[in-house]
Amino acid sequence: MLTTRPRGTNDFLPNQVEKWQFIENQVRQLCAKWGYREIRTPIFEHTELFLRSVGETTDIVEKEMYSFEDKGFRHMTLRPEGTAGTVRAFLENKLYAQPQPTKLYYMGPMFRYDQPQAGRYRQFHQFGIEVFGVSDASIDAEVIALATTFFKTLGLNALTTKINTVGCSNCRPAHQEALRQYFSAHKAELCPTCLGRLAKNPLRILDCKNESCRKAAQNAPTTIEAACDDCRNHFEQLKSYLDGMNITYQVDTNLVRGLDYYTRTAFEVVINSVGSAQNAICGGGRYNSLLAQCGGEDMPGIGMAIGLERLLLTLEEQQIDLNFEVYPQVYIASLGEAAKKESFLLAMDLRNQGIYTEIDYLDRSLKAQMKGADRMQVKFTVIIGEEEIDKRQVQVREMSTSEQITVSIDELTHFLKERL
Fold first, then answer.
1. Residues in the chain with pLDDT < 50?
2. Distance separating alpha carbons of residues 381 and 359, to the nearest angstrom
3. Which pLDDT does position 354 carry in this prediction?
4. How far apart are CA 102 and CA 361, in angstroms?
5. 76 phi/psi in degrees, rounded to 5
6. How far is the C-alpha of 114 from the C-alpha of 64, rounded, in Å?
7. Which of 133, 271, 274, 410 lies at 20 to 30 Å from 377 by C-alpha?
8. Rounded distance between C-alpha atoms, residue 95 and residue 102, angstroms
């Protein structure tokens, strides 16, 4: 139907948009203080980029991507996440040739053919950060700290930060084999998708949301048990930095995230809302091999992303007021054709001076205009008729007190600025 939006998408109406703008402004202010600069990448990329980076056995690639063939018979995909495109831009534009580290952030829409539900949509928005060129665990801790600081700035509570190490190319093969042997004895409990993953990438079984698969994974070999000395040391350093910042966390040995490019650090921030299950509103991790997989130098990277729809839903659940209804400051009520034209010119002048002003466009009676001004919750109503035009004066009513005063048209801007 022409009057129905596509399933899994949203219209953001006035009074809702102001909340988004507030969140976006908070993002920009925080990132500026922490040294992150904004990057904007295309909404669609070559499909191969996501196949190579996100992983062919992930839910995103197997089930959720919006892919299409363009008129040049090229395979394209609407971006399902922000890291791959940022990595591609970093390599293509040779940002690696600049002094490192490179610290970037992005905001924008992503697309996944997911099952729509509260806080989860097919077109959704993310704020994410990416850091290139640093292997040290201090930057892992900084990325986590930026996320938790952002949430605290907004007044969110009931935050839980979960961390894990998912290993590296040295220790992951042994862990994969241990998982393969373990889940081979639990085939009857696995969903059809995870049965297919058993041979290709058994680590993905740990990320399955199917209840039977989750139960089967409870006693599976962990990444921490299989971690090499370097991964163990990196993980211990991360915990030390988090302890030093008094950031509380839980070690979750089954946390592997839904993307294949993660190495070593993986983390989530979840909200424990009263009456609802834990919901991850932030996730991220390290991806030391991703740049090389995408055809670039072997350079370390780490990032995280926050789902903005889910964030706004959580703010609402926790009754944190972001109700930024914008009301005019001044309404100009006019009486007569000459006064109508004068009110229009006055309004334009007041707007140019930074005063939010509305006028009557519908030729309503003075009484109807005054009612309209009251509904708009303006602070002052300026009343102008033919007599006021002749005298170059207006009547200014302060709506909260109904006090009315005569003001020269030439002094009106100054009068209002002093009182607004």
1. 275-277
2. 10
3. 94
4. 52
5. -120, 155
6. 6
7. 410
8. 8
What is the C-alpha to C-alpha distance for residues 414 and 420, in angstroms, rounded to an integer? Answer: 10
Q: Element (H or E) spanning 280, and its range?
A: strand 279-286
> Residue 348's CB: how many other CB atoms inside 10 A?
12
CA distance 360 to 333: 6
Which pLDDT does position 276 carry in this prediction?
Answer: 47
**What is the per-residue DSSP string for 375-415?**
HTT-SEEEEE-HHHHHHTEEEEEETTTTEEEEEEGGGHHHH
Q: CA 227, CA 222: separation in Å to the nearest integer? A: 9
Question: How far apart, in whole angstroms, are the C-alpha atoms of residue 406 and residue 131?
Answer: 60
Q: Where are the alpha helices (DSSP H) in 35-162?
A: 47-53, 59, 83-92, 137-153
Instruction: Give residue 57's pLDDT.
Output: 64
Q: How far apart are CA 34 and CA 103, in angstroms?
A: 9
Burial 189-228 (b: 16+ CB within 10 A, else e): bbbebbeebbeebbbbbbbbebeebeebbeebbbbbebbb
If we measure between CA atoms, which residue out of 80, 126, 120 comes closest to residue 105?
Answer: 126
pTM of the model: 0.86
Print burial letters for 55-91: b (CB count within 10 Å at least 16), e (below 16). Answer: bebbbbbeebbbeeeeeeeeebbbbbbbbbbbbbbbb
Q: Both tokens of residue 11?
A: 């219209």
Q: 136 is written with which tokens?
A: 């040290």
Question: Residue 262, by phi and psi: left (phi above 0), alpha (psi -120 to 50) or beta?
Answer: beta
CB 133 within 8 A of CB 233: no
Strands 159-165 vs 357-359: parallel, antiparallel or unpaired: unpaired
* Domains present along the chain, CATH in parentheses: 17-171+227-317 (3.30.930.10), 330-419 (3.40.50.800)
Q: Among positive and negative, which fits the CA dihedral 222, 225, 231, 237?
A: positive
Rounded distance between C-alpha atoms, residue 303 and residue 240, angstroms = 19
